[in-house]
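User: quick one, sequence for these C-alpha cells?
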C-alpha cells in the first residue's frame, strides 16, 4: 500500500510517490498558495532571526 500524506494546504490525501509531482501538495495551486503565505509572512519558523538587520554593516541607509 502506498504511503499517503495530507496536503498542507487543503488536507486532501496525496500519494507520496514519483506519480505525485507536487508532493506534499495535491496540486500546483496548493503549492502556490503555501508559497504566497510564506512570502506574505503569514507563516514563519519560530525563533530569533539569525541576523538582526540593524546589526548588518552597511545597512544604515535602508532604515
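Assistant:
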Amino acid at each position: 500500500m502506498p504511503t499517503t500524506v495530507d496536503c498542507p494546504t487543503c488536507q486532501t490525501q496525496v500519494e507520496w510517490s514519483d506519480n505525485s509531482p507536487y508532493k506534499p501538495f495535491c496540486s500546483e495551486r496548493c503549492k502556490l498558495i503555501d508559497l504566497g503565505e510564506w512570502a506574505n509572512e503569514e507563516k514563519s519558523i519560530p525563533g530569533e532571526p539569525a541576523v538582526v538587520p540593524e546589526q548588518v554593516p552597511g545597512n544604515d541607509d535602508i532604515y
